[in-house]
Amino acid sequence: MASTALPHWIAGREERTGQALEVPQAGSLESAPPTLARVDRADGRGLERALSAAHGAREACARLPRYRRRRALLGVARGIEARAEEFARRITDESGKPPGDA
Length: 102
Fold this sequence. Notes:
Shape: flat
Order of helices and strands: EEEEHHH
Structural class: alpha+beta
Distance between the termini: 36 Å
Radius of gyration: 18 Å
Strand content: 15-25%
Strand order of the largest sheet: 1-2
């Protein structure tokens, strides 16, 4: 049976250790708060692979012309703006902060 936990990603590839971590909904007044999500728990080997991939990507990104880096960052910013309400709801659920602070 496949894990129902959300995977983590390293260098654009889905990674799973098979160890799930439950993320409780913050701000719940219940003694056992509801689970917000189940995520795959990364391990030390995954951390090393992620750091190595990030270091390699840094070198590749540094070689890109400035206009291409700008275009990529603007695309990320537009994507975040388009999903601002969704992100605010997630932050509210995860941290228990009021929506105005999220």
